[in-house]
Write a structure and sequence with these properties.
There is one protein chain. The chain has twelve helices and nine strands. It is an alpha+beta fold and 394 residues long. It folds into three domains: 114 residues, Butyryl-Coa Dehydrogenase, subunit A, domain 1 (Orthogonal Bundle); 98 residues, Butyryl-CoA Dehydrogenase, subunit A, domain 2; 159 residues, Butyryl-CoA Dehydrogenase, subunit A, domain 3. A four-stranded antiparallel beta sheet has the order 2-3-7-6, with helices on one face. Strands 1-4-5 form a three-stranded mixed beta sheet, with helices on one face. Strand 8 and strand 9 form a beta hairpin. The C terminus is likely disordered.
Length: 394
């Protein structure tokens, strides 16, 4: 981290191992992502060729232990997420969908046979997974999902639809959540199963270097052992969502920092009225505000990481970081763009791309409104947005 960002010696709060993880991921992003991301974003292309390199970097299922997974700490995973999102939100989203959602679902709720079969090749990047929870008419209220799995002899038969599912068109397996006669259950669905169709959503104004899809499930037949045996009720997918939300709380800081550093560098070089615009009071005010927001967000994320590593992290605390840090990151990216003037709307500079991506990040894994109400329920003891039955199920 540069001295111009690290106002409170954040680096001094990290161990040597944590700094090493961060620096390795940063070097990868600087050499393999930043030189090409503008072109990928413009072409709306996810750089799938980076998947083996991400696996070699040790960021797929990074925080999971056993089964060939790296087994790194929560703080190390958070730092990696921050550096990946400094490249692009789509890159961090790939790592999040693969590790915090698909792999986490199998790791938390799968059978031993499922873990042995899927997790090692997923950690190596040989098998890509996706996580099918959201539906066309069921986003913030997953309890209203209509995808249904019924027993038919020795098989499950699934019918329904999912929407905004990351990686689905390139995934080898999908973790699909469906209603059953016994409540919500999870299933590992090979994507080559007859009746499974994934269609990328296009055109998009955000997350263009990423993949989000519609999924159709038409009489998809699975063996009984495709069910995740430990996944019962909405609490199961929510436990995975919280893993992803934790990573977002870190990741968005990377987008904010890259936006700020881009604006700071530009302000030092851009001459107007025979002096760099960094010498103007209004520009310095903007830079100070951005740096302060980044510093606060880092400290929030680090606190969550320490709590998570200690086994003490609570769901409402994750909402603090997801809500506050994403809000701050969007504000920083937008403000950074103003320093760039008209040049800031070109692909030569990152802030506008980050700002557009962050509009998606603030929506997925719980909107601002949902996380506000999670915190409101914690503060008042009164859940304002779901029934008592849904609260109990969670």
């Amino acid at each position: 981290m540069s001295a111009t960002t690290d106002l409170l010696d954040f680096d001094g709060q990290l161990s040597e191992a944590e700094r090493d993880v961060r620096d390795r991921v940063r070097a990868f992003v600087n050499t393999r992502v930043k030189p090409a991301i503008a072109g990928w974003y413009d072409a709306a292309r996810f750089p799938a060729e980076l998947i083996p390199e991400l696996a070699d970097l040790g960021v797929l299922g990074m925080h999971l232990t056993g089964y060939g997974c790296p087994g790194r700490s929560a703080v190390e995973y958070g730092l990696a997420a921050m550096e990946l999102e400094a490249g692009d939100s789509g890159l961090r989203t790939f790592v999040s969908v693969q590790g915090s959602l698909a792999m986490s679902a199998i790791h938390k709720h799968g059978s031993e046979a499922q873990k042995q079969k899927w997790l090692p090749p997923m950690a190596r990047g040989e098998v890509i997974g996706c996580f099918g929870l959201t539906e066309p008419d069921s986003g913030s209220d997953p309890g209203s999902m209509t995808t249904f799995a019924r027993r038919d002899g020795d098989e499950w038969v699934i019918n329904g639809a999912k929407r905004w599912i990351g990686l689905a068109s390139i995934a080898h397996i999908a973790v699909i959540w469906a209603q059953t006669d016994e409540g919500v259950r999870g299933f590992v669905v090979p994507t080559d199963t007859p009746g499974f169709t994934a269609t990328p959503i296009a055109p998009k104004m955000s997350m263009r270097a990423s993949i989000q899809c519609d999924i159709a499930l038409a009489d998809v037949r699975l063996p009984l052992d495709a069910q995740l045996p430990e996944a019962r009720g909405l609490r199961a997918p929510f436990s995975c969502l919280n893993e992803a939300r934790y990573g977002i709380g870190w990741g968005v800081i990377g987008a904010a920092r890259d936006s700020y550093e881009t604006a700071l560098d530009y302000a030092g070089r851009r001459m107007q009225f025979n002096q760099p615009i960094a010498s103007f009071q209004l520009t310095q005010s903007k830079l100070v505000d951005m740096a302060l927001e980044i510093e606060k967000a880092q400290l929030v994320a680090l606190r969550l990481g320490r709590l998570k590593d200690a086994g003490r992290l609570q769901p409402h605390q994750i909402s603090v970081a997801k809500l506050a840090n994403t809000r701050a990151a969007i504000a920083v990216a937008r403000e950074a763009r103003t320093i760039l003037g008209g040049n800031g709307v070109t692909a030569d500079y990152s802030p506008m791309r980050h700002a557009a991506n962050l509009e998606s990040v603030r929506t997925y894994e719980g909107t601002d409104e949902i996380h506000t109400l999670v915190l409101g329920a914690h503060l008042t003891g009164i859940p304002a947005f779901r029934t008592a039955a849904a609260q109990e199920d969670r």
